[in-house]
Design a protein that fits this description.
By secondary structure, this protein is an all-alpha fold. 61% of the residues lie in helices and 0% in strands. The longest helix has 69 residues.
Length: 434
């Protein structure tokens, strides 16, 4: 969740491709983060969902998961609707042209999210500014024939008319995906268990061996490869931006999104990992190797994609394409394993700071994206280096989010929606995260 603050800061292109010149080196980091950040989130979610099902049983598990996921989704959607509508109404009253949210990124993407508005004064490089150095492996060429088509919003437009544009999921997409996963998972896992019951012992031995020898990411990549190709984006051989981002209420309830299967496999992988949680130490011990392999495989996949993704006439193109996706999948899986091991190695100790960040991470993630357009002018990279601008943006946006948490969440009933699942007393406020 907190990596999302770094990822969503648009410093990777502020002096770059959207305004001429080279994108900043942050673009390369963002591409890597995108490959594993949300798959890792769903894997962790599956791990704890399995734990909760075993602890509470199906009925109480569903009630608790629906409360912790469904209610924040609905409340956040309502709050963002009010925020977006109010901002655009104010801007329209201040501008003779009535500038609205449709002006911006172009019709193929459905325009920018409402409330973003025009760039702040001075946005972009000044005259004569030197562009950022090129990242070590630039993005593959964009295939504009494959730009995503916005999902249907027919029901939303029929119910809410022109106001439907304020009811997009945007960064709330992950809550909807997770809501569906936690609801279906007990029944899917029950079915899988019935299917593999004759070979359960063999399956467990192979699983434990893969964990001990740090080969589980290879198995996970092989299983998820068809789903990864199904979820591919328009930037070469890689995972697309979330298909549910432009989903509109209530249409998204009945929409199918091509990246659902891929993220669902990672959720089920977390569920499986909980079954073998006694071997988590193997992930912890190999975290450096896993992270190094994740970065290496990711870099190799992007090199291959840059070189061959549009060279459809080369011999053995289909094999090269599948190989590129497989390398990308290995980068995703091993990066995930590396961070899981790092978390266990360094962040599982009792700590009030870590506990506080864990308890507030959901709130920070939900509010940081609407904040970014209003604070980004303070950290424009042409006033400083890209990494200083990124660090300043992360600190500023996170600090404002935490101040809002202390002012509007902690002292109000919102704490039961956006706060920790249980309210720790002073005596156990430093309990381990596990």
């Amino acid at each position: 969740m907190l990596l999302g603050v770094f990822y969503h800061l648009p410093i990777s292109f502020m002096n770059g491709s959207f305004f001429g010149g080279q994108p900043s080196p942050k673009a390369a980091i963002d591409l890597w983060l995108h490959s594993f950040r949300m798959p890792m989130f769903f894997l962790i979610s599956g791990f704890f969902a399995s734990m909760m099902l075993g602890k509470y049983g199906v009925r109480k598990y569903l009630v608790r998961r629906w409360w912790r996921i469904g209610i924040p989704l609905l409340v956040s959607l309502a709050m963002l609707f009010i925020f977006r509508y109010s901002v655009d109404a104010f801007r329209a009253s201040q501008s003779p042209t009535g500038f609205g949210p449709q002006v911006g990124f172009g019709p193929a993407m459905g325009g920018p999210p409402p409330g973003f508005g025009p760039p702040p004064p001075g946005f972009g490089p000044p005259n004569g500014a030197t562009p950022f150095p090129a990242p070590p492996f630039p993005s593959p060429p964009v295939d504009f024939q494959k730009l995503p088509v916005p999902p249907s919003s027919a029901w939303s437009q029929a119910l809410f008319g022109d106001q439907s544009k304020y009811l997009r999921l945007e960064h709330l997409w992950f809550l909807w995906y997770l809501f569906v996963m936690v609801t279906l998972a007990p029944f899917v896992v029950w079915f899988i268990a019935r299917v593999i019951s004759p070979v359960q012992g063999t399956f467990d031995r192979i699983s434990r061996g893969a964990l001990r020898w740090n080969a589980a990411p290879i198995v996970l990549t092989a299983i998820t490869l068809p789903a990864l190709i199904h979820a591919r984006g328009f930037l070469g051989w890689s995972l697309a931006n979330p298909h549910g981002f432009l989903g509109t209420f209530p249409d998204f309830i009945v929409m199918y999104y091509p990246d659902w299967p891929f993220y669902s496999f990672y959720f089920l992988a977390g569920w499986w990992l909980f079954r073998h949680r006694d071997l988590l130490s193997s992930i912890r011990e190999n975290w450096k190797w896993s992270l190094a392999l994740g970065i290496t495989f990711f870099a190799a996949s992007y090199w291959l994609s840059n070189r061959y993704s549009n060279a459809t006439t080369v011999p053995n193109y289909e094999r090269i394409r599948i190989g590129g996706f497989f390398l990308y999948g290995l980068g995703t899986a091993y990066s995930t394993w590396g961070f899981l091991g790092f978390f266990q190695r360094y962040l599982s100790r009792p700590s009030p700071v870590v506990r506080y960040l864990a308890d507030t991470a959901l709130w920070v993630y939900l509010v940081h994206l609407p904040l970014i357009p209003y604070v980004i002018g303070w950290v424009e990279p042409h006033r400083t280096s890209w990494w200083e601008a990124t660090a300043g943006g992360v600190v500023l946006v996170t600090a404002i989010s935490l101040i809002l948490y202390e002012l509007f969440v902690r002292p109000t009933p919102l704490i039961y929606i956006y706060g920790p699942a249980t309210m720790p007393s002073k005596e156990n406020s430093t309990r381990p995260l596990s």
